[in-house]
Amino acid sequence: MSSFKEITPYEVENSMKLIGKDWMLITASDGEKVNTMTASWGSMGVLWGKNVCTVYIRPSRYTYEFTERSEKLSLSFFDEKYRDALKYCGTKSGRDCDKLSDTSLTTAMIDGAPVICEAKLVFICRKLYADDIAKDKFTAEDPLSNYSGGDFHRFYICEIEKVLKRID
User: In the structure, what pLDDT confidence band is assigned to residue 168 with cuts at 50, 70 and 90?
Assistant: First the structure.
């Protein structure tokens, strides 16, 4: 990962675009294997005096199992040329295929988190808190349309320990 330099979370531009439009890969390891999934829901900010991000993973997703077993995870953001790989990682399950191999994406372990080497920006994160979104906690009806199947997300608030930006 020598083609990266460390930057601060405050140097990251437009997290709304990064997450909502560019998408990201959430990557975790169970200690033996690595799995990743595409996500376009999340947030970044400050909580408990720490720079944090919040990610959302449905329990039905294979990456959920990996995230539950790991202390750390990574968020990876890509140039547009990787859009097909992101689509693939968002529509296929790691239970049925090797998404990383199928998309020619490679990983490395950095500070205990698996990261995608081809990313333009990587967040190495440590889980701080997890909870489940619950139907009875909604104060508005319209977001419930995202849960017609009842597969409510678990959310993870994670400390951003390191941000790596591609320099080549």
Answer: confident
The DSSP call for residue 20 is I
Report the distance separating Cα 102 and Cα 31, nearest Å: 21
Q: C-alpha 144: how far from its chain's center?
A: 22
Question: Are 94 and 29 within 8 A, CB to CB?
Answer: no
In sequence order, what E strands does 82-168 have? 107-110, 113-116, 121-132, 154-166
- Per the CB < 8 A criterion, the answer to whether 159 and 8 are in contact is no
pLDDT in tens, 3-43: 999 999 999 989 999 999 999 999 999 999 999 999 999 99
Q: Name residue 64's amino acid.
A: Y
pTM attached to this predicted model = 0.95
d(CA 91, CA 28): 17
Task: Tell whether the torsion through CA atoms of 125, 6, 119 and 24 is positive or negative.
Answer: positive
Backbone angles phi and psi of 148, in degrees to 5: -60, -30
Classify the phi-psi angles of 77: left when phi > 0, otherwise alpha if psi is within -120 to 50, otherwise beta. beta
